[in-house]
Design a protein that fits this description.
Elements lengths: L11 H23 L7 H17 L23 E3 L8 E3 L2 H14 L7 E7 L2 E8 L2 E7 L5 E3 L2 H4 L20 E9 L2 H13 L8 H9 L4 H6 L3 E7 L8 H10 L9 E3 L2 H14 L7 E8 L2 H7 L1 E2 L2 E2 L2 E5 L4 E13 L4 E13 L2 E7 L3 H7 L6 E5 L7 E5 L6 H4 L18 E3 L6 E3 L5 H12 L11 H9 L6 H4 L4 H4 L7 H12 L3 E3 H7 L7 H11 L2 H5 L3 H5 L6 H12 L1 H12 L3 E3 L13 E5 L7 H10 L3 E3 L8 E4 L5 H9 L2 E4 H10 L4
Helix pairs in contact: 1-2, 18-19
Amino acid sequence: MDKPQAKDPSRRAEADRIEKLKKEIDRIRYAYHVLDKPVVSEAVKDSLQHELAKLEEQFPELVTPDSPTQRVAGKPLEKFAKVIHRTPMLSLNDAFDFDEVKAWGERIKKLEPAGKFDYFAELKMDGLAVALEYENGIFMRGSTRGDGVTGEDITQNLKTIEAIPLRLNVDGRKLKVAKVEVRGEVFMSKKALEKLNLEQTKKGLKTFANTRNAAAGTLRQLDPRVTASRKLDCFIYDLATDLGQKTHQEAHQKVKELGFKVNPKNQPGQNLEEVEKYHQKWAKEKEKLPYGTDGIVVVVNNLGLFQRLGVVGKAPRGMLAYKFAPAQATTEVLDIKVQVGRTGTLTPVAHLKPVSVQGVTISRATLHNEDEIRKKDIRIGDTVVVQRAGDVIPEVTSVLKNLRPKNAASPAGEFHFPRTCPLCGSKVVRISGEAAHKCTNKKCFAVQRRGLYHFAGKGAFDIEGLGPKILNKFIEEGLIKDGADLFTLKEGDIAPLERFAEKSAQNIISSIQSKKKIALSRFIYALGILQVGEETAVDLAREFGTLDKLTSAGLENIQKIPDIGPVVSQSVYDYFQDKEHGRLLARLLKAGVKIESEIYKKSDKLEGQIFVLTGGLESITREEAKDKIRMLGGEASESVSKKTTFVVAGKEPGDKLDKARKLGVRIINEEKFLRLLEKGGKG
């Protein structure tokens, strides 16, 4: 392998980074394209490739022929016969934002200043590219893309796909050419993947992570009967034979006439602004599609112009892959800092070199605890994979250790947890049997501050307009120390504060006072009792009915509640035995807080059914949805397991959806969920 040589000694660091990136991308690409055993997501590979391309663009003297940017990935496996493509199946250059798309448009217009540019946009399918060859109208051979020049003969497997005609829709003798070749994408629908993974789970076999892996693995089966059982599909996107088509749009029309399936979502665009609207539409609505897609392909519509633009490197100049914002990306760990939560738990947080993930700039990600850091071996200076999926906060999923700098590779580079609280300086202890470290100071101001955020937040008192910034101001001014102080605030206390006009002070006080009535379960949750989440709070409220009965309950009474284990029972009991907590409860009641009884169950229609919500709901709030489930006797859980009955997928669902698919849990949309609530039952 040629190694980039930096003529300028000051470029040695860039040369070393390029070399490491090349090796890592080659490793990822070989596993992904040759073995069909991905080691990271495609978004991670794209992120690294993008970084390498930018470095090589900045330092062209460091580009070598063996760079991944100079070749098409993939080598055919030996188990299938090799096929040499008549014309190469080229890869595409990527764009990750509209500025890059516009820059591409400007470059090609400079090459063809007299050209009339319009475009054709199509969804970039998440499957496997194939070439289909017909002789005299009969399907003769089908092959994979492979390395772009040489693919694999998978004719027998392709014949099992109903979307691929064995005979063209016209008499072969009426065609002006004896041989016709089309190219398309074989894919698996989300529904077919769900069914396949359920079957795999029943058989004790490994499930597929996504539709792309499932399609690739299915096409490479040696037994066509296995392929036939998995219900693959195929969209054709290119006509490689000249049948008189003048535009890409006409090519689509001709392949439809020949009897092929073409994606109906594809559409022409008069300019790049129309292409951008198309991209934005499907970036928002891609989860509603029955198949996977990771972006769009935009192509110069005029085929004569497209041919004249030619090829740059290993990609056609007139075509571009415009990716959707990925759920994963790679970036560098700049620092690891520890923050203190509302229960005194210390949480390590990675401070990252800012990177865009799903259109959001990520600069921090949770590392959870010391065990998680050691398990993943995360160090300052590492190149890491960060992930953000729907309602999930950013997290580091893995480390690309081959890119680790020397100063982080030694034992001195390991991260060590602090022995004292970074805020109050008190001793830090690790609770026996737990992964968490905790500050031992009950009055640590970080604990009090975050406890107030929780108290006023969603699922608890849910006080509108009272976010962390305003609470911080009240704390700093000495107006509040705990939740009870909120309900004794007067307009005159906050109106004189900087940036608080009389009207805003009135609104805040009104908002606080409007929340004095609260359901028992929400009140219990608002207290911030260690180990008590929303569902446990509901269980406690359902069992005891009133605050008096709960506070006077013995440990043995709490332990009898189903689904509440000994650790949680002890935590609840200890909380109400604490005299300081007793004084807080008394002050809340004296301030006028009214705790309302709840009727948790009006029917048993959903008895024994467990629901998990993920993503945003449009016609109902998450809290309302949970209440409705409980009223019908069901359970609203926060985590997916084999016991889960339904996962309700809203807009931008998180990784709970992926887990549901892996476990074979039934997934329903919001509309189906609401119908289920109406009639009650299994649906």
